[in-house]
Input
Amino acid sequence: MNGEVPISATFTDPLKLRQALEGLRGAGITDYEVFSPMSLVAMEPLMAKRGSVVRYWSLIGGFTGAALGFAVCVVSAGLYKLIVGGKQPGALVPYVIVGFEFTVLTSAIVTVIALLVSARMVPKRPPDEYNPQYSVASFAVRLSCPRERLEEISGMFAQAGATEVNANP
Output
């Protein structure tokens, strides 16, 4: 076992939750999950940041489209002995427009697909520790902490005004 203990704290006031999150950040803990019945815009700087992978897929789609556009032009010119703009059949300069169009088209298609896949629109089952009350009138924070810091974090939650602190060693 890795010595990590799950701990959760329940709060009735968002200001007390904010105080607990600031305490966690001050203690160097940034990996936690917050449950709330409403959007907490004022606490967004305290939440963990998740980057989107859509931009990387878009970039990969663009590079793939450019390569594919040039490849289609060069291969078709080679197969059918097409002379474009008085250049030799394999010249790349006349195919820049087609390469650009393939870049934009492929990048757009891959971006839309990546957006739909990463949108997480599939219903996700809440964790076992989730209490339906978190969607109605209370707030909660859940994290895994090292066993030796369990007392420190429990005390921090109690000091912030948690109504309930659960640790499952």
Notes: Residues 107 and 150 are 48 Å apart (CA to CA).
